[in-house]
Amino acid sequence: MTNKIVIIGAGFAGVWSALSARSLIEQANKASEFEILVVAPEPVLVMRPRLYESSASSLVHNLDALFHAADIKFISGTVQAIHPDAQTIDVQPTSGTASSSITYNRLILAAGSSVIRPESITGLQQHAFDIDSLASAIKLEAHLESLASHPASTSRDTVVVCGAGFTGIELAAELPKRLQQHHIANPRIILIDTAPELGASLGPGPRPTITTALDALGVERKLGSGIAAIDPQGVTLTSGERIQTNTAIWTAGVKATRLTQQIPGPRDAFSRLHVDPYLRVPCAQGVLASGDAAAALADGRGNYALMSCQHALQLGRVAGYNAAAELLGQRLVEYSQPAYNCCLDLGPWGAVVAGGWDEKKVKVSGDLAKRIKISINRELIYPPAGGEEALALASPVQPDSDRLFEQLIGVMGVGLHLAALEVINELSY
To answer: Which among 357, 326, 322, 323 has a CA at the least distance from the CA of 342?
Structure first.
């Protein structure tokens, strides 16, 4: 009898869940007894952490060759329903044909998250852009490119970024350069947030660096200000102030995939399923959650994994390993990721690397941090092309991010590019 491990989602957590499960199965010499199946709309890994950049259409990584080499099956479709008691899922194929039911022995929910668009904000659904998905990032880019064809005006040359968190800051810092490339000579970028502090979730450590960078780039801030309404010609704040703009971009908040609602068990404020140390959903036999779908404790001090690529990569490895290990009768591995480092892109000014869950002390900033960020974005987060290499790097036991950043800072600090790539290859997976 074949055991079937089904993974919903082809993001970072989904890809590494599949690879990690396959790796353990191969090590156990049980390949003939297992089928690993990934279900997602397309066999591509969208480089979501990079969607604030230009050339959005290029920010995808095709997975066909990797899945074929690693003996991972793929179904192009959207999961409409999960039936935990029956251990089946209903899938609507992307081709538009009739939906089908798939039975599983283990299910890993790794379908990611989506931006929250509050219904209470008038016009938000109709008139705001976002960079939450590849399609929305491409739509924004087409709009930015079209601005130069319109007569110069305050509305044309002003962009309002709604949300001064990680995504909003990275986008706002990149926008002056992007708009200038589209022949908007003196763009006005305004970053708005209801929080009184810039990058509230990032803590006070990197804030002076972020402030310095945004000042140098000419990015304005309006903090402690809510959005009341958005229309094609402007944004109205809750204070009554109106900002003339043809471009409002929403980056404020995300929630886990709607599929978490179909699995019994408690969820957190982001709709993530609470999981045990092995990433299993306690109230649903045979179901694990990973990536942005999992509310997983990252350490023994009460810190939960963030909805980030850094945590999705490791969550995926652990979920896939444990799904296979249970079926093989092997010992499970606890998820643990006590070290946390954030690397924030600050556009042409540079970047900032800060470490720690609470204080987030700045480790490096400026040009050196920018080179590290570029290496992460263009090398570190991409899976290997070959199946054998990918399976070898799919172990749930990985070097922590403290070691990674220390190595990268040391190598890039002396300008050894080739050595830096070697470090990335050694540590990234």
So the answer is: 357
Q: Which of 224, 250, 276 is the last residue of a domain?
A: 250
Fill in the amino acid letter for 413.
G
Assess contact for 256 and 285: CB atoms under 8 A. Answer: no
Please, what is the Cα angle at 261 between 260 and 265, to 5 degrees? 80
Domain count, the chain: 3
Residue 100 belongs to a domain with what CATH number? 3.50.50.60
Q: What angle do CA 328, 331, 333 make, to 5 degrees?
A: 115
Q: Of 107, 124, 127, 93, give the one whose Cα is nearest residue 6.
A: 107
Nearest to 319 by CA among 296, 303, 353, 300: 296
Residue 110, CB half-sphere, CA atoms under 13 Å: how many?
39
- Cα separations in angstroms, 331 against 317, 324, 337: 15, 10, 19
Last residue of a domain, one of 215, 250, 285: 250
In a structure prediction context, what are the per-residue pLDDT tens digits for the chain, which is 429 residues long? 799 999 999 999 999 999 999 999 999 999 999 999 999 999 999 999 999 999 999 999 999 999 999 999 999 999 999 999 999 999 999 988 889 999 999 999 999 999 999 999 999 999 999 999 999 999 999 999 999 999 999 999 999 999 999 999 999 999 999 999 999 999 999 999 999 999 998 999 999 999 999 999 999 999 999 999 999 999 999 999 999 999 999 999 999 999 999 999 999 999 999 999 999 999 999 999 999 999 999 999 999 999 999 999 999 999 999 999 999 999 999 999 999 999 999 999 999 999 999 878 999 999 999 999 999 999 989 999 899 999 999 999 877 767 777 766 776 664 434 344 444 444 443
Predicted structure pTM score: 0.93
> 25, 324 in Cβ contact below 8 A?
yes
Q: 234 and 144 in one domain?
A: yes
- Can you give the residue range of the structural domain that contains 357? 343-427
Spatial separation of the C-alpha atoms in residues 52 and 384, rounded to whole Å: 23
In a domain, residue 338? The reply is no
